Write the structure tokens for this entry.
Amino acid sequence: MNSPRLARTKHLSAANVAGVSVAVVIVNYRTPELTGTCLSSLAAERAILPKLKVVVVDGGSADGSAEKLARTVTKPEFAGWVSFLPLELNGGFGWANNQAILALARAPAAPDFVHLLNPDAEITSGAVALLVEALVNDPRCGAAGSQLVDEHGAPAASAFRFPSAAREFVNAAQSASLGRVLGIAPAVIDASSSCEVDWVTGASVMFRSAALREAGLFDDGFFLYFEEVELMHRLRARGWTVRHVPESRVIHREGSSTGIADARELPSYWYESRRRYFALTGGRFAALAADLGSLAGIATSKAKLLMGRRGGRRAPRGRDLLRLGVSASAAAPSPSVPAWGDPPGKPPAWMSRP
């Protein structure tokens, strides 16, 4: 991060954010070494944000991660600002984050902002304070997200438009040119300056606690994927805004916990989460329209292959959409959203599905 930006962040610390309380939540799943690196990268942020605290959560790793992290958080450099919350259950991304947020909400002094940070992420200097700045400067901003970059500094997709049946068609067809011809704006928003967007990456996103009090926490009917999209859809429906803050840069080693970055096929829970998102935000017919859009896109992509043009990896598969999407769209899911202040510990709703 360049020196003018750092100077501006330090000025902000002295003038505006010294009294702001921020709780960073890091959910580990079988990546204790990466979690330790992520945690260490946050230490310097405390010079800008003296009231910053961190909750490290182990999401039921059952591989010795919890024991390793319990030792890590007792190191002298983490004393007084890092706590550890081991969970016995692997309840998914949203549920694990909820457990930490629910505990924070019931503390004597709840934080002003909650920053969710992936364990495979590493903060660059000032990144957390810049998200605080975005929220402090706009009282109606409910969430602000960072710009993800890879280990070489190349930017990764971090800001997005909401999914739609039309975008599902273009994405499954794996043809940006087709989207341009049809006038369908791409899902990814490429912005070099701070701007309002539909939703931002869940790998580094800061929520205003007041917005979560109004809209609720993550819907725990999701196991993994689309849960942050649904939450930000809910925030925007209640009048809160979502902001992309590209000045806040976070190094991200994508898929280290899930392994999905290297997978050739998407897991079944991806399809189930996708269907749940469309059904909750638009009804079962929206879910059906999204599936039909994807199936049409898949057919278009196969036609491209027959003409000798290669497609991308990890595209939706028609047979999986038929089995996990279209065939299940008749059942409209019920929301399962814990409220700020609810007691933690209730098992996630996705575990009770047949």
